[in-house]
């Protein structure tokens, strides 16, 4: 069945249109006056017995919830996803990816990463691209970004990384993601960041519109078919409108003129019936080819070059409906990499493994306790039957005597082992328990160079200008120098061009430019052209 509207219909039960209704308290008692508090005498103190005053102010006092620790600023929209055909059935039992008659409702949230909820849209930053598929087999979340790699390889570094990226703790400056000492200090000491930093300095970090932005699942995930056979997979979203960026100067002006630029663009386009579309594609790697690459498939700082493994189209997503209440929907939506359905599973990517812990953990506090999956935006359209009970924010009245298994009294939810259930992918694991990064994760430069060499002349110029601007704001000279000493391993011409722009001597050594031409050199003799 096409269940494209199942989520819309489910939300009917939660919608509240209060226009024209009469004011009441939370208890449903009608109130005739809400402009003055109850006072003793004409100019006397407010009385404690004024329950309407206390309820009104107390609720207001508690209106805010913590913003997300990262990706705090976002914009969301509803839509649906439908596969073109069933070819992926050889690799996965996930019906929403393989049955072309099934239209699955989705909610997508786009976001910036570093800024606070009220920050500007057009900053230089990574963009989040998180999709919740409300499938018949349960919720599946593809929690991706608009860049195909990440800054770090192991999630244990995530708190360090985010502390370095966020505004500095002593003065909470700057709001910008990258133009400050702590970010570049971290980059210079953690060369695994370099590939992603190249993407961040490119125009990819300045999307013209959320509608014109690619999305990537980043990690290597695993598809699992009916025989229990696994296939490695990378997920790609490709915008039908093509990928387009702003240029830096436009970003600066737009941030002042309309801080909601990307958010407004998405909203207006949907209101105007110009529904943005993305094609979902996959790169598939047979398990027998796990070690066929000169990088590790479990390393999230690496792409699988499309020349080696092409992206194959799976289906299309259309976003066609704006939320009705920002807080209820866009703010309270809770994405989680561990929300998977039968046919999709994890790999041992240590970044992914950390994420699988972190999202649920943070949402327990952000959304007030263990029942946030019952918040309307998060509720699956699939049936939910658990033996979990009680807790803050419980919305259901569970009937019956039992909430445990096994039980002989009836009631409760037994676990049934049929072919439709989620079964973790079975694989053999052995090895020494050890806290150490795998040797196969140590090449931090080749793909950064690959990215640099893939850029056209003017794109290279933009990257050089971005480095000059960002590093130009770094106060500690030794940090600037260390970044240059890393860049030289990516490409000597790049390092030289950046050095000239920030008034430093180019570092010694480094790789020859194996790119086509070296347009960045055109900037090499204009010191300070972009640094301010
Ligand atoms: C939020 C993507 C790595 C922890 C988000 C969001 C996205 C995202 C898109 C926003 C979700 C939303 O719109 O609500 C990614 C990607 C990563 C990555 C693509 C790397 C490939 C990590 C890691 C951790 C982490 C390594 C922790 C170890 C978080 C947390 C949130 C978040 C705590 C806030 C969630 C919430 O409050 O609901 N991430 N992230 N992320 N991410 Fe990640």
TrEMBL record:
Enzyme Commission number(s) of this protein: 1.11.1.6
Region (Disordered) residue spans: 1-29, 505-526
Keywords: Heme, Hydrogen peroxide, Iron, Metal-binding, Oxidoreductase, Peroxidase
UniProt keyword Oxidoreductase present: yes
Biased composition (Basic and acidic residues): 1-15
Enzyme class: oxidoreductase
CC cofactor: heme
The keyword Heme is assigned to this record: yes
Residues of the Catalase core domain: 24-413
Coiled coil: none
Catalysed reaction, written as an equation: 2 H2O2 = O2 + 2 H2O
GO MF terms, alphabetically ordered: catalase activity
Function in brief: Decomposes hydrogen peroxide into water and oxygen; serves to protect cells from the toxic effects of hydrogen peroxide.
Membership in a protein family: Belongs to the catalase family. HPII subfamily.
Protein name, as recorded: Catalase
Organism: Saccharopolyspora mangrovi
């Amino acid at each position: 069945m096409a269940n494209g509207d199942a989520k819309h219909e489910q939300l009917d039960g939660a919608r509240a249109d209060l226009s024209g209704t009469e004011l009441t308290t939370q208890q449903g008692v009608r109130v005739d006056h809400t402009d003055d508090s109850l006072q003793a005498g004409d100019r006397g103190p407010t009385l404690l017995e004024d329950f309407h005053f206390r309820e009104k102010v107390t609720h207001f006092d508690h209106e805010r919830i913590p913003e997300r620790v990262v990706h705090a600023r976002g914009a969301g929209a509803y839509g649906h996803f439908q596969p073109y055909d069933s070819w992926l059935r050889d690799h996965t039992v996930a019906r929403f990816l393989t049955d072309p008659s099934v239209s699955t409702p989705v909610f997508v949230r786009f976001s910036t990463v570093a800024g606070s909820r009220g920050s500007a849209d057009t900053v230089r930053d990574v963009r989040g691209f998180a999709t919740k598929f409300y499938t018949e087999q349960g919720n599946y979340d593809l929690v991706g970004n608009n860049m195909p790699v990440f800054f770090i390889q192991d999630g244990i570094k995530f708190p360090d990384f985010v502390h370095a990226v966020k505004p500095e703790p002593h003065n909470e400056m700057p709001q910008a993601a990258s133009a400050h000492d702590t970010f570049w200090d971290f980059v210079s000491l953690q060369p695994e960041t370099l590939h992603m930093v190249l993407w961040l300095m490119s125009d990819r970090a300045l999307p013209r519109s959320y509608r014109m932005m690619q999305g990537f699942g980043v990690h290597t995930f695993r598809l699992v078919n009916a025989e229990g056979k696994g296939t490695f997979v990378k997920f790609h979203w490709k915008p039908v409108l093509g990928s387009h960026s702003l240029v830096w100067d436009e970003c600066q002006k737009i941030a002042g003129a309309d801080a909601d630029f990307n958010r407004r663009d998405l909203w207006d386009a949907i209101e105007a019936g110009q529904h943005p579309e993305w094609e979902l594609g996959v790169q598939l790697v047979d398990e027998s080819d796990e070690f066929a690459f000169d990088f590790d498939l479990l390393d999230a700082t690496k792409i699988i070059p499309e020349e080696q493994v092409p992206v194959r189209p799976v289906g299309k997503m259309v976003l066609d409906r704006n939320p009705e209440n920002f807080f209820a929907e866009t703010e309270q939506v809770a994405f989680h990499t561990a929300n998977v359905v039968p046919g999709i599973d994890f790999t041992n990517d240590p970044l992914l493994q950390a994420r699988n812990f972190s999202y649920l953990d943070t949402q327990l506090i952000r959304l007030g306790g263990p029942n946030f999956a019952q918040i309307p935006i998060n509720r699956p359209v699939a049936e939910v039957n658990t033996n979990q009970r009680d807790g803050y924010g419980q919305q259901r009245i569970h009937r019956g005597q039992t909430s445990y298994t096994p039980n002989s009294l009836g009631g409760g939810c037994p676990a049934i082992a049929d072919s439709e259930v989620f079964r973790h992918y079975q694989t053999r694991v052995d090895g020494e328990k050890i806290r150490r990064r795998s040797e196969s994760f140590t090449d931090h430069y080749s793909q950064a160079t690959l990215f640099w060499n893939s850029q056209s002349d003017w794109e290279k110029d933009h990257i050089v200008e971005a480095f000059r601007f960002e590093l130009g704001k770094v106060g500690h000279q030794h940090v600037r120098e260390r970044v240059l000493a890393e860049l030289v391993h990516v490409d000597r011409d790049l390092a030289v061009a950046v050095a000239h722009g920030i008034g430093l001597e180019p570092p010694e050594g480094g790789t020859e430019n194996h790119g086509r031409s070296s347009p960045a050199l055109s900037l090499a003799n204009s010191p300070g052209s972009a640094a301010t």
